Amino acid sequence: YNDIWGMRGNPVPVPLPHISGSDAAGEVIAIGDQVTHFKIGDRVAAYPNMSCRSFGGTCEACSDDREYDCENRIVWGFLTGPLWGGFCEVAHLPEYNLVKIPDNVSFDAAASASMTLLTSCHMLVGRAKIHSGQTVLIMGGGSGLGSFGIQIAKLFNCKVIATASQSKLEKCKKLGADYVVDHRKPNWHKQVRMISKEISKETGRAPGVDVSFDHIGQTHWNNQLTVLKNGGTLVTCGATTGFLPQIDLRHIFYKGINILGSTTGTKAELEQGFDWMNQGKIKATIDSIWTFEQAHEAHTKMLKGNELFGKILMKPDSV
Length: 319
Fold this sequence. Notes:
Blueprint: H1 2-8, E1 25-27, E2 43-46, E3 49-50, H2 60-63, E4 74-75, E5 98-100, H3 107-113, H4 116-127, E6 135-138, H5 144-155, E7 159-164, H6 169-175, E8 179-182, H7 188-203, E9 209-214, H8 221-227, E10 228-236, H9 249-255, E11 258-261, H10 267-278, E12 286-291, H11 295-304, E13 311-315
Parallel strand pairs: 6-7, 6-9, 7-8, 9-10, 10-11, 12-13
Antiparallel strand pairs: 1-2, 2-5, 3-4
Helix pairs in contact: 4-5, 4-10, 7-8
């Protein structure tokens, strides 16, 4: 969704002239004099979180292996510029911002994962610290983020409730979701609550959701708070429906709810995600593939979202 925000110049302005694209994969065709870990011909994917480490510097956060909190952090293909992103035939990145693609992972899969797998992994593992036996609510399970979120939560032996529009529910179950709910229905949260009670009977744990994985934002915010159990966690990385939800604070302080913000993640988390893909434990979900000349149609499909499930890829004609 960074690409859409970049077009809108909202929530933050982008430098112009601008090239979007934070998820990218390809082959190294040239290297700088000081590059030591890559050679021409290597298969690589972008690690789009640019921090002090990208340019040989450091700050308190980077020194603490929290480059996602770096005071100088920018996202490649979104906040970089001008003319520095993935929607081009030849792109360039600092050495630190490349990750080698494992043998069993295709270029298409790697490009589908470089931003969304990284973000999903950081949200659930790095921030929410999910563990076996928890009930995890994945909002927007048909999105790139959500499709990885479902699989990561199942990898950690969690009970997964995924939300999506009606046409996408069965696909969420095929990815591993134990239960699915249409979040376009007005009482979707009541259905989630009922499911959590069923899970409680099976597991003996208190009813309610342990972790809610959010990138939807405004329209579904308070209802997510209602389904969290005491001490539950809502982790959010975005707000595709708006940034200004009305919050009922009673749900937060009375139940001791944790609200965690999350951005991208660490390079190590992306490498871990690629390792899971290499072992066949999780997979990229690709909706469709377009040429660069079809960028308008591709982004229109993303904006409408009704029939979109997983990631959209764009390629030069020659690839």
